Amino acid sequence: MQVIPLSPDERAYTSASEAIDHDHPYVRELAGSLWSAHGDAYSYAKAAFEFVRDTVPHSADSGDLRVSWRASDVLATRNGICHAKSHALVALLRARGIPAGLCYQRLTEDDGTEPLVHGLTALRLPGSRGWARQDPRGNKPGVDAQFRLGAERLAFPVRPGLGETDYPDLYADPHPAVLTALRGSADRRELWQNLPKAL
């Protein structure tokens, strides 16, 4: 799917913010370690994706009730929902100068009820033609997201017949409604009630 950057200035997709705090010493140290082990942009981006996907459990899978949203906290506590994990991946990518941003899907249960907004990322590697979406949510039975620059392999392909949709916008910072929910929820149970149902 083609994503549409909301900012015309690509520097917005490499800059730090409160949620995407890639200037934090912990994020920079981790990025440096991953880069040293891989050494080129493609290999690093794949390693960063797999690190977040595989070593930061999705809190709904692990049962962790803590809510993290700042990239450095997500990486340090190894905890977060899809949105938080996306913040962490974007921070790791930006720490090595790879443009990256946030994008979203509207998903539902199998009967079309219980809509929710799911967070994922997109990146643009040097020399590539466009942005490639990646989903670091974390795999489990029935979910097999992979790092791909061509044909996407996301955690949840949308089902338009159930009202699901891929939002085309690429955000430099988290969507305000998502960030408000993350920052204002005492625990993950409260977070499920506060997250937007659509954008």
From TrEMBL:
<dbReference type="Pfam" id="PF01841">
    <property type="entry name" value="Transglut_core"/>
</dbReference>
<protein>
    <submittedName>
        <fullName>Transglutaminase</fullName>
    </submittedName>
</protein>
<dbReference type="InterPro" id="IPR038765">
    <property type="entry name" value="Papain-like_cys_pep_sf"/>
</dbReference>
<dbReference type="InterPro" id="IPR002931">
    <property type="entry name" value="Transglutaminase-like"/>
</dbReference>
<feature type="domain" description="Transglutaminase-like">
    <location>
        <begin position="30"/>
        <end position="136"/>
    </location>
</feature>
